[in-house]
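Morning!

As promised:
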Amino acid sequence: MTPPLVGLVPFGLVCGVGAQAAGASVFEAFGMSALMFSGAAQILAAQLIAAGAPVAVTILTCFVLGLRFLMYSAAMAPHLKPLPPRWRHALAFVLNDQAFAAGIRRFRGSGDKRNGASYFLGTGALLWTTWQLSCFAGYWAGNFIPAAWSLDFVVPLCFLALLVPALEDHPMRVAALAAGVAVVALDALPMRLSLVCAGLVGIAAGMLAESRRGAR
Amino acid sequence: MSSALGWWVVILAVGALNYLSRLSFIALFAHIEMPTFVARALRFVPAAMLTAIVVPAVVFVAPETLAFSYTNPKLVAALVAWAVAWRTGNAMATMGVGMATLWLAQWLLPAGVT
């Protein structure tokens, strides 16, 4: 639980700085962090608006960036199925990168769905609140943090810490390796399509490795 | 379109699209049975997506500029952090050692690419 939270704070600061630099009012900055609840989308939207991109292009680009949420949604679905609908609707709202990474690990580690769901909802609420505070702090004071500290590097480190324990078997490592190669190879794709495409390549490679191992 | 209106159209549209994307399969598979093929694929989502998020943040030192070299402090820090995560499984230690390594590498390689 703590690692996603620690990773979120510098990311929120960066997003706050980005919103401020793009000329957003404090309400617009809060609207972004509260409703989009996705650091990558917030930074991208702020950059595009500041660059004078048409509204439709900005929306489409952020939507493509958010396609990974479809995969998170599908991966969470079996774990949330036994819950009442309003739980599912609430949990879906907080399903960002960090909440997914922390939540899926808990569900896989425990057979108790209700317990896992309480944990996920608690985590999500805490992540959401922390996110608002970090973005606010970044909006008001982020410019005082020297860029040389590279605090935003905590974000990939946090994901790395969650990734490594997930590489428990050979097909899983093949999936990660393929996704890593693909995301670099496909970097030239527009609208950060490389992210979701690399995810799909990784999944396909993992399944292939699994069935080859099964056939032997 | 006025600037404030433009902001709010983007905020509300992206907010709604993000929520619908997050809800999509959670809502769908609550009502229909998930095909086994899909269930098999989903096992790989965390490993594939987390890698796809981490790798560009480490190997790109500027847009479209790859650096697979010891002079890239982020790559050095990520490899050390990887080793810590592998050996200890401790996320806080991974992040702490990773940041310390990054600062050390940036300090030792002042002329390096950052």
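Residues 113-141 of chain A form the longest helix (29 residues).

Hope this helps with the figure draft.
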